[in-house]
Amino acid sequence: MDCARPPAPVTALLRLCLHALLGGLLALAAVRAVGDGAPRAGAVVALAVLMAVVYAVGVALRPVRPRTPAAALWLGALGVVWLALLVVSSDALWTAFPLYFLLLHLLALRWALPAVLGTAGAAIASFVLHGQQVTPGAFIGPLLGAAVAVATVLGYDALYRESERRRELIDELVATRAELAEAERTAGTLAERERLAREIHDTLAQGLSSIQLLLRAAERALPAGDPARAHVEQARRAAQDNLAEARRFVKALTPPDLEHGSLAGALERLCAGAPGPAVQFGVSGTPVELPTPYEVALLRVAQSALANTVQHAAAGRAEITLSFMDTSVALDVVDDGRGFDPAARRPKEPGGFGLPAMRSRALSLGGTLSVESAPGQGTAVAITLPLPVAGAR
């Protein structure tokens, strides 16, 4: 009897005990037949050996596995030899007890129970056939043994299924912990990239842009023939080149969602891949090129707001709208979920990204974040950022 998974130590020990029990009972029947000088002693020994051989062959064959036709055929052959042994030896009825466990292990329960009952009936009939004194124990013994075997096997199966469920749960927990750790590392890397991009844009790039503007003004103020004008122009060009390099650094630190397309494309992909409610995306106004920090802030706010919608709102649909206006750009995330009281609590995503993080992003770029919601009336999150002047981009 082969199993796909190597048997546990307890299971292997139980199998060895079953093998030993059946072999011992067959040996007992043969020895007693020879020792008592029974007229059919030769037949008893021959059938006991034959049953032991049939049993050993079934144990060794790989196709003999639980709930398979090969197992049913093997049990049938074993049963025929056992019935023949019952006819010539009254001691063979005790081998019914290991047969109970074999039947319950290899057959489906709907077939195993009738087979066990039939085996118990054959054992009782053998007792009567050999002219033994009929007592209540002759009937109760095989039936009680069958009941004990059924209860033992069913209890073991229940414990085994529970053990398997716990093992699968542990495997899932281990896999989830590994995924969570990887997600945290990725989130930390992305957060650091965003921080560096924001710092470069807000300090180095803005400072170089201001220096460039001041040098341009100084260059215009100097007379055409003044030697200092050439130095000012050279300094302005150096500032311009360094500003371009700083912007390349910022671009290189752009989140992966923005690397291969526009903000609108990233938002559209976000809506298409969102689990749970159907999410629509729309753009209003005339799109303009936005600085990388603006795109990052709008994308992250959309991701955070949509994550809150999926996890907490139980919404049927949601909508994300990117609006370009004359002096500002706005992003609205609206859902028809259960809503909440913004003054009472602030829903957060795993990792701490919630309304405070969204509001911080908006304030860092001179914008505002507003949340409108009420229990049972859905939620609307809106971030508005002032468009920077052309020279500050």
Compile the SSE list and pairings.
Elements: H1 9-35, H2 41-60, H3 69-88, H4 96-106, H5 109-129, H6 136-221, H7 227-252, H8 256-259, H9 263-272, E1 278-284, H10 292-313, E2 317-324, E3 328-335, H11 355-364, E4 368-373, E5 379-386
Parallel strand pairs: 1-2
Antiparallel strand pairs: 2-3, 3-5, 4-5
Characteristics of this structure?
single chain, 393 residues, alpha+beta, Heat Shock Protein 90, 65% helix, 9% strand, disordered N terminus
- What is the CATH architecture annotation of the domain at 261-392? 2-Layer Sandwich
Main beta sheet, described?
5 strands, mixed
Helix content: 55-70%
The Rg value, from CA coordinates, equals: 41 Å
Query: What would CATH call the homologous superfamily of the domain at 261-392?
Result: Histidine kinase-like ATPase, C-terminal domain
Q: For the record, what CATH class of the domain at 261-392 applies?
A: Alpha Beta
Q: Topology as H/E string?
A: HHHHHHHHHEHEEHEE
Rounded average pLDDT: 80
What is the CA-CA span between the terminal residues? 75 Å
Name the shape in a single word.
Answer: rod-shaped
Counting DSSP H or I runs of 4 or more residues, the number of helices is: 11
Classify the beta-strand content into a percent band.
5-15%
The CATH topology of the domain at 261-392 is Heat Shock Protein 90
How is the largest sheet built, in terms of strand order?
Answer: 1-2-3-5-4
